[in-house]
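ok so I'm stuck.
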Amino acid sequence: MKNLISELLFKLAQKEEESKELVAQVEALEIIVTAMLRNMAQVEQQRLIHQIEGALEDVKPDASVPDNDTELLRQYVKKLLRHPRS
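replied:
not stuck anymore, here's the structure
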C-alpha cells in the first residue's frame, strides 16, 4: 500500500511540474503577443487581429474536440487580441 501511495504522489508531482511548465509557456506567449501588438501601428494591429480571427473561424475542429473546449479557445484568443494584458 505504501508503494502505491508513493507512486501516486510521484505521478502527481510530475503532473504538477508539467502543469507549471505549460503555464509558463502560455504566459511567455501572452507577453510576446502583447508586446508585438503594442509595437505595431494601429492599422497593422487591426489587420492582424482580423486575419487571426478570420483564420480561427475557418478552422473546423476535429469531432473529438468538445464544443466547449473550442469555444474556450476562441474566447481566450479574442481576449488576448482585443484586451491584451497590461
